Structure formats: structure tokens, C-alpha cells
Amino acid sequence: MRPSVQIALTLACVTTTLAAATPTAVAALRFDDRVTLGTGYVEQEAVAVGDDDTIAATWDGPFGVWGVTRRAGGPGASPRT
Amino acid sequence: MTPRGNALIAWADFDGVVRADVAGRGQPFGAVATDIGRARLDAAAGLRVAALADGRVLILWSDAPRSRRLSARTPTNPGALRLAVWTPGRGFARPRVVGASATGPAVVAAPDATATLAWLSRGHLRVAHIAAGASAPGSPRTLGAASGPRALLSRSPDGVLSAGWVAPGGHTLMTRPLGAGAPAAARLSFPATAGPITAVQFASGSAGRMVAGVQTAITRGANSLWTAAGSSAAGWDAPVLLGTPARFPSISTPAAGVLASGTPLLVWGAREPAHSGIADVVAASDDGDATVLDSASATFSNLDAAVAAGPNATALVWPALARTGPSGQPLTGGVTIAVGT
Description:
The complex is a heterodimer.
Chain A lengths: L2 H15 L15 E5 L5 E7 L4 E8 L2 E8 L10
Antiparallel strand pairs in A: 2-3, 3-4
Chain B lengths: L6 E6 L4 E7 L10 E5 L4 H4 L1 E4 L5 E6 L16 E9 L3 E2 L3 E14 L5 E7 L2 E7 L10 E5 L1 E9 L5 E6 L5 E6 L8 E4 L7 E8 L4 E11 L2 E10 L3 E2 L3 E7 L8 E4 L5 E8 L6 E8 L4 E10 L6 E4 L4 E11 L5 E11 L1
Antiparallel strand pairs in B: 1-2, 2-3, 4-5, 5-6, 6-7, 6-8, 8-9, 9-10, 10-11, 12-13, 13-14, 14-15, 16-17, 17-18, 18-19, 18-20, 21-22, 22-23, 23-24, 25-26, 26-27
């Protein structure tokens, strides 16, 4: 099966199989507030959100473990190893 | 993240030393890490962190021999279960052994400054409770017979703590709310022809809603990916197959989390058709609400997204495709941190 078909089937499958309860819960989250940090190959990402909606993210990348904190809608601190 | 705004990262270096770094509220992580203890472990699978409501942070790991397999996710050799406690202004106390012959630990904190630990030991799921103000758990209790790969804990936004584990034989995920009067364990079974469960994620949302993302493998590297929805009261619906068995599956292992609204969700990567190394990032909740969050801008080979939610914001992190070569292959990676409010 071609991947493009498979993706479409995936979405259709999930949509039709799971019962509708809150139709817009995920779609309403646009996730437009994005930053991309070009740090090289990464893996094992982790993220946490504090009570004040501060976000802390960490990942395993070049030169060791990286970490960064930022506020939702605000500028991010520079990632550090 | 602690209620005081401290963010703590823990990891194990190549020498097996468990290290941690703490960022104060609104501050970046520092350049100096703290050594906590020495462990021979597969850090990718073993280290778990939970922030207590009183500002302390727990780090839990099983002192299992490090796997020789690159990128191994699950330690298969049991070891001592160790717990380190970080206290603001005082740093880390010496790690203590809180369990034996342990693999696949999990820890989750509660708003009342308590915490719950879970781990696999000698074919059973063990669960222990840390009382408010305590630095060690009480006596563990056994929830049921279990096989790998790991213990699961999930606390819903309305405060229901549930445990999950794979039943012996490897074809059934068991989930069970903890606490007095809780329903019996719910079973999510997969066909034996799909092979045993090799990876599993599970999240419980508000009002008992649940999602699970499960990987099964007929042979090593030939994986199937499944999702399922359910409720703690009515049990699991039949699982949905996301990716058919293949040497290189087109769907990554899903990550599970709960939106700030209380909706449980799964996030996974779906390989782009024209570029083998590029993926879409897809999310689905338990209500059929699946959506592509990011099209053709993530790297597939290492797509292990993470999701977390605060009072108003939900954050996702995935490996980004920072630049592509002439054939569309990823040349430089990075991470994307996406926030929805």
C-alpha cells in the first residue's frame, strides 16, 4: 500500500471507528505558536508545562542533552547543552 | 515543572552517571549539571521524573544493565529501583533503593503532594505510594501478573489515577483505575498473529476517557501500530490498526497525553509518500478527531513526539526537518516546539 493511501485510510479509520464526543477538541488546537530550533539530529524529546504555562523541553542531540524553556506566546530562551 | 516554576531535566551519560539540571522560573538551563548517582541503565527507558506539589522533584530509575543495542528503549535485565529526591535550596539527597529486580518504572505526582510509583518485578506489576512530605514509598502492592515492556501510570485532569501493564503472553494491555471502588481492570487485546506488544503508551483524560497507542511486532523490526479508545467504566473499544506490518513501518510509535481541556490524545508520525525520511505529524483524540498538525516538516526515523499540558496551554515537541537536500532527504535536524492554547 502506498503511504499516501495509507495515511488517508488511517485518518478515515480513526474518524469512523471512534465515537464522536467532542468534535473540535484537537482540531481547535492550531498549535500556531511554534519555534523550530535547528540543532542537528535529535531524538528522545520530552516536554513539560508548568502551572503558569511555562514550557520546558529537552532532547538528546549533538554534543549532549539540550534544554530550553519558554512561555506560551513569548520568545524562547536559547537552548543549552 | 514544579509549582514554583523550576524545570528539571534528568539523563544518564555514556558512563552511566545519572545527571540532572534545574532551571529556575523563567531562566534557562544552566551549564553545570548535578551528578546524582551512578547507574548502569538504559537511560532512554529507565529515567522517570515527577514534580511534587510541594516543590520537590522525584527521579526514578531501574539500575538495569545497559543494553548493547543502539537506541534500545526498554531494559530487559532487571535491577535495583532507585529514587532520588531534589529539594529546592538543598539539592539532591542520596538516591535510595526502593525496589528490587525492577524494569520499566513509572512515577506520577498528585496535587496533594503525594506520588505513586509503578514498576515491573518478577513478572508482576508493583505499585507503591509516597505520602505527602515523605521521601520514600510505603510497601508496594501487586496489581497483577505482567510482562514487558513497562509499567504505565496516568493521572487524569479530574484526579483519577490509572495503571497499565501488559498481561503475560504479550497480547493484552490491562488498565485499571486505582483507589477504593474503582472498576475492574479493562482489557485491550490484540490478535496473536500481530505478535507481542513491544511498546505501549496510554493516557487517561477527564470523565474516564482513555486512549492507547500500541506497537506489536511479529519479528524484530516488523511492527504494527494500533490505537484504541475507551473509558474506565465501559472498557476498551476494538483497536484500530494504523500501520500494517512492514520492515520499515510508515507510522511511528504514538505518544500519549492529555490536552488542557481534559481530552486524551495520541500524536504520531506518518511517513510522507514521496520522501522516505519526511513525515507528517498527526494527532487524534478518543472522539475521532484526527488532524494533521504539521505536514512534511518532521523527520520520520526518529519521530518520537512528546506532549504535555498545563492549565491553558498544550505543548508538543517533535523532531523537525530543518533543511532538506535536493532529493528531499533531511540534512539537518532540530526540534519543533508547538503550543496550542
